[in-house]
From TrEMBL:
<keyword id="KW-1003">Cell membrane</keyword>
<dbReference type="InterPro" id="IPR005503">
    <property type="entry name" value="FliL"/>
</dbReference>
<feature type="transmembrane region" description="Helical">
    <location>
        <begin position="35"/>
        <end position="57"/>
    </location>
</feature>
<keyword id="KW-1133">Transmembrane helix</keyword>
<comment type="similarity">
    <text>Belongs to the FliL family.</text>
</comment>
<dbReference type="Pfam" id="PF03748">
    <property type="entry name" value="FliL"/>
</dbReference>
<dbReference type="GO" id="GO:0006935">
    <property type="term" value="P:chemotaxis"/>
</dbReference>
<protein>
    <recommendedName>
        <fullName>Flagellar protein FliL</fullName>
    </recommendedName>
</protein>
<keyword id="KW-0966">Cell projection</keyword>
<dbReference type="GO" id="GO:0009425">
    <property type="term" value="C:bacterial-type flagellum basal body"/>
</dbReference>
<keyword id="KW-0145">Chemotaxis</keyword>
<comment type="function">
    <text>Controls the rotational direction of flagella during chemotaxis.</text>
</comment>
<dbReference type="GO" id="GO:0071973">
    <property type="term" value="P:bacterial-type flagellum-dependent cell motility"/>
</dbReference>
<dbReference type="GO" id="GO:0005886">
    <property type="term" value="C:plasma membrane"/>
</dbReference>
<keyword id="KW-0283">Flagellar rotation</keyword>
<keyword id="KW-0472">Membrane</keyword>
<keyword id="KW-0969">Cilium</keyword>
Length: 186
């Protein structure tokens, strides 16, 4: 008896009923409505995620301005302010090993500071880039890790490299800085 209630043979399709895949709501097809609905959900999720990330970063202190949290360099304490320099940064990473018994790999990225008005210095740095890379590699390879690690040694390394680069060049460089200064034990 109960099977007779759900017998599909009794149903007849009328012409006034739309087909299953072509359902229309108003003047837009159902597919367009579904696409718009999911687009709104995705955009809402993205906005929610961005808001949460911004609030979290600000709460953790990452939204502070860089000039308010900047610590002065050691050289700024000594001179009362750093000289404004242009920086030659095309040397890239210099890698090699120290002269220790247990060799340690060094990876340094030197940047060379020169006076902004000195275009001749920039041109010479470009022409002598390979010589400067070689001088940096030889300097680090001829020293032990004890002579290279630490703040005081790093300051001495910067001064020694500046003097070495000035021996190579006709025009004088003012400073050497490192964006990467690592020693890895293998």
């Amino acid at each position: 008896m109960s099977d007779d209630l759900f017998d599909p043979e009794d149903e007849s399709g009328g012409e006034d009923k739309p087909a299953a895949g072509k359902k229309k709501i108003g003047f837009l097809p159902a597919v367009v409505i579904d696409i718009l609905k999911w687009s709104a959900i995705v955009i809402g999720a993205i906005v929610f995620i961005v808001v949460v990330v911004v609030i979290t970063v600000r709460a953790m202190g990452g939204g502070a301005r860089a000039d308010t949290t900047r610590l002065p360099l050691h050289s700024e304490y000594e001179r009362g302010g750093a000289e404004m320099l242009d920086w030659f940064s095309q040397i890239g990473d210099v890698r090699g090993t120290t002269r220790d018994e247990v060799r340690r790999t060094f990876i340094v990225t030197p940047h060379i500071g020169y006076r902004p008005e000195s275009d001749a210095t920039l041109q010479e740095l470009i022409r002598r880039e390979i010589q400067i890379r070689e001088a940096v590699a030889i300097y680090f390879s001829s020293r032990s890790i004890r002579e290279l690690e630490g703040v005081e040694n790093r300051l001495r390394v910067k001064q020694d490299l500046r003097e070495e680069i000035n021996r190579i060049m006709v025009n004088r460089v003012r400073d050497v800085a490192f964006s990467r200064y690592e020693f890895i034990e293998f």
